[in-house]
Amino acid sequence: MFSHAAIASLNNLEMMVYHYVIKNRDKVMYMTIRELAEAAGVSTTTVLRFCRKLQCEGYSEFRLRFKLYLEQNQPQQANIGASEIMSFFKSVNNDEFDNLLERAVDIILASERIIFVGAGTSGALAKYGARFFSNVGKFSNHIDDPYFPVTNDMARNALAIVLSVSGETEEILRFASQFSLHNCKVMSVTSHEHSRLAKLADFNLSWHVPQTRIGGVYDITTQIPVIYILESLGRKLARKLA
């Protein structure tokens, strides 16, 4: 029901509905369209657009299909937060997302050097990605300092793989822009393709899991989707390099 293509087609307001539905799946099937709109902080028109993008004629059909979806995919015991992760894996378990990964691998293979970029938690994953790619035979570096100088020499024939949950961090946006200005291709891995980083990048991979912060400051969003994407790219890369 929640395919990668369908989720990718949602705008920012429709994503608010999606995030509410995923986090409150047991409540949603009993809510009226007005109640869902109010709870998600959007209009009923937005909820209807959301339903249509999921191939439902209206809200009544959405509730029916969503109820069937839950019955078919209900885990025996789900921990808090598991629903978002399980929804991610269901959304990418298809040929369409696999083709996106294949296109990304072709871009990686065409680049002479790979530079992983990230800050904070994404910086730690940038280091992991560089090591994973190097392990499979594609030497890569990582930069976790967004103020690191970008030069023509380092950007020549290179690909910067920029990791960011929100895709809106000013320092990362500035850093990614520096790579673009030096004619370096940019691939972004973000939570949503409507972010500024995704729009700036030459190619984007999105994972559609809602961002979670403590006190509105400290990001504790799960990074399992990012690790899955990096490892999937690495394994596909290994097969093509063999």
From TrEMBL:
Q: Which UniProt keywords apply?
A: DNA-binding, Transcription, Transcription regulation
Tell me the gene name.
Answer: ybbH_3
Q: What is this protein called?
A: MurR/RpiR family transcriptional regulator
Give the domain of life: Bacteria
Q: Which InterPro entries match?
A: Homeodomain-like_sf (IPR009057), HTH_RpiR (IPR000281), RpiR-like (IPR047640), RpiR-like_SIS (IPR035472), SIS_dom (IPR001347), SIS_dom_sf (IPR046348), WH-like_DNA-bd_sf (IPR036388)
The record's Gene Ontology biological-process terms are: carbohydrate derivative metabolic process
Q: What SUPFAM superfamilies does the database record attribute to this sequence?
A: Homeodomain-like (SSF46689), SIS domain (SSF53697)
**UniProt domain SIS: residue ranges:** 104-240
Species: Raoultella planticola (Klebsiella planticola)
Lineage runs:
Bacteria, Pseudomonadati, Pseudomonadota, Gammaproteobacteria, Enterobacterales
Report the GO molecular function annotations.
carbohydrate derivative binding; DNA binding; DNA-binding transcription factor activity
Give the HTH rpiR-type domain ranges. Answer: 1-73
